[in-house]
Amino acid sequence: MNGVLLLIPIALGLGLLGLASFFWSLRQGQFDDLDGAALRIFVEDEEDLAP
């Protein structure tokens, strides 16, 4: 029973930390351009084409 009393607050704290970091990344604009990152692999760099 003592282990449960220790693990529940730790689990809740880690969950709140993950939720806070998710909202922080939303506010910083990490998820603004989802299509650009997926299509960037198809764009050839000009410096790679030079002999």
UniProtKB/TrEMBL annotation:
Transmembrane region(s): 6-26
Protein name, UniProt field: Putative membrane protein
Keyword set includes Protein biosynthesis: no
Highest taxon of the lineage: Bacteria
Annotated organism of origin: Sphingopyxis fribergensis
PANTHER family, A to Z: FIXS PROTEIN
Pfam families hit by this protein: FixS
Keyword list, A-Z: Membrane, Transmembrane, Transmembrane helix
